[in-house]
Amino acid sequence: MSNRAASSRPWAEQWDADDPGFWVRGGRHVARRNLLLAAVCGHLGLSVRGMWPVIVLFLPAGGGAATGPGLGLGPGEKFLLLVTPVVAGAALRPAAGRALARLGGRERTAVTTAALALPGLAALYVLQRPGAPLWLLLAAAATAGAGDAAAACPVGPAASYPRHARARALALATAGGDLGLASAQLAGVLAAVTAGGSSPARIAAVHIPLTVLAALVAALRMDNLPGPAVGAGAGADSDADAGAGVRRGAGVRRGAGADPHLVWLPLLSLATAGSFTGYGLVFGLVLQHQFGTSALVALACALPATLLGAAARPCGGWLAGRWGGARVTLGSLSGMAVGTAVLAAASSRGSAGVFAAGFTVLIVLGGVGAGAVATVAPAVFAARAGEAILSGQDARTAFAAARRRTAGAAALTGPAGALGAAAIGLSLGAAYDAGSPAPALWGLLGLYALCAAVTWTMYACRETVPTARRYRTGSGEPVHP
Questions:
Q1: Whether 313 contacts 366, CB under 8 Å
Q2: Are 111 and 464 in contact (CB under 8 A)?
């Protein structure tokens, strides 16, 4: 089997990853290459989205002889600037999915990765303009939302794996994507060490050649592999049926109001995935405002927390496979409520060490909860399919409905996580404008308590571990179709 990318492949029309002979003869190598390249592009996408939370740390605080873009920004304005890429990305991703639905996986990956050069160029432009106003900074930060579209790149290649291996392939690829913020933070550390933080534009500049190179490699070395549709909610569709996948995902979202699970599951994602993303984004800026740390010290504290959180997310899925997704989610939310109370106490007493440790624990617990929540939807809807089968419904029809509902839940939980991250950033910014983060922290504690009650009432008290173990962790569909 040739490995060179081409516009047409005779064997691609007969792609059958579930055929062991086809997989061993060469399908495995082609699928792995495509998934690896897509994972690299997805990593760059989240790294570009994570540029601005790092750049904000280097913006001048205002006053004195300081000059530079964003001079005189208050805490609330800096936190707004920090969450803008996340909100813009959540709004852009569905539209990008529809616009690129007819493209093959290779073209879609190359286009979305090449588009990442625009946020880098926009950041370079605005950071070299002394006295740049807030609206211009916000516009430049909003372009970094393009990273969300690139982060969806691995979904299509993962769908070209055998059915039993898709969950693991996607989990490994998205784990690499979760390290994107850590890469941006590392670029900030290098900028602080080499230039003393005097040139935050270097953080943006380093991403431009990397994204152009990755887009070129994707265009030359990736393939348009057919595979089962995964629905728009997952971020991308298969190459074979992208348009139909978008239509199915949209149809499920329109029917979301008829199913209470499609209300409660996004709420749980808002609390867990939103905390994982939101706390990771704001950690450095909170340390700056709370304790007056330098950008280098703030990044040195935030980088290990980000790495631990990225590792915790797949661990949450693994723990859910052993103990049940709802039970792990409940434990995560309970721990986050306790950790938030510790943060509030450490903030009032000015204990920097306890505050930083508590923030790290919250990021890790948010990652565990995000990984666990991803397993709840397939378990719930597959259990419902089992009940339908026992009542006489056709098994294939019942499980097809379960997969559609799972895709619908994924279509809602993604934006809910972004909304949670934005809520954390904006609430903390407003609280620091008022002089203390305590009101925001107590509000978040109330959210975690509410979500813990929902998790226990709707899921955990009804969950049995043997049932939960029948599902692959981190997957959007049950193992038994």
A1: no
A2: no
Instruction: Give me the phi and psi of 131, to 5 degrees please.
Output: 75, 20
The pLDDT value given to residue 66: 42
Distance CA 446, CA 458 (A): 18
Q: What is the DSSP string of 410-464?
A: HHHHHHHHHHHHHHHHHHHHHHHHHT-SHHHHHHHHHHHHHHHHHHHHHTGGG--
Q: What is the pLDDT of residues 206-215, one digit of tens each?
A: 999 999 999 9
The CA distances from residue 345 to 6, 290, 355, in Å, are 60, 13, 9
Residue 469: partners with Cβ closer than 8 Å, 6 or more residues away? 321, 322
Q: What is the pLDDT of residue 28?
A: 87
CA distance readout (Å), 86 to 48, 111, 410, 419, 421: 11, 20, 17, 8, 8
Single out the residue of 453, 466, 89 nearest to residue 271, CA to CA.
Answer: 453
Q: In angstroms, what CA-CA distances link 322 with 190, 330, 473?
A: 40, 14, 9
Query: Measured between alpha carbons, how far is 434 from 459 in angstroms, rounded to an integer?
Result: 38
- pLDDT confidence of residue 53: 93
**SS3 assignment, position 9:** coil
What tokens were used for 388? Answer: 């339908």
> What pLDDT, on the 0 to 100 scale, is given for residue 14?
73
| The pLDDT value given to residue 230 | 37
Q: State residue 241's pLDDT score.
A: 36
Query: For residues 362 and 359, what is the distance between their CA atoms, to the nearest angstrom?
Result: 5
* Cα 246 to Cα 237: distance, rounded to the nearest angstrom: 7
3-state secondary structure of 265: helix
Give residue 26's region: left, alpha or beta (phi > 0; psi -120 to 50).
Answer: left
Q: Which residues contact 3 (CB under 8 A, 6 or more apart)?
A: 29, 30, 33, 221
Sites in the chain below the pLDDT cut of 70 = 1-13, 61-72, 196-198, 226-258, 464-481
**pLDDT computed for residue 229 by the predictor:** 39
DSSP 8-state secondary structure symbol assigned to residue 60 = -
Residues 301-359: tens digit of each pLDDT: 999 999 999 999 989 988 988 888 899 999 999 999 999 999 999 988 888 889 999 99
Q: Which parts of 350-394 fold into alpha helices (H)?
A: 352-390
pLDDT score at 8 = 42
Locate tokens 């661990």: which residue?
Answer: 315
DSSP label at 208?
H
Q: Name the 3-class secondary structure at 2.
A: coil
Least Cα distance to 373 among 463, 281, 278 occurs for: 463
Q: How many CB atoms lie within 10 A of CB 136?
A: 16
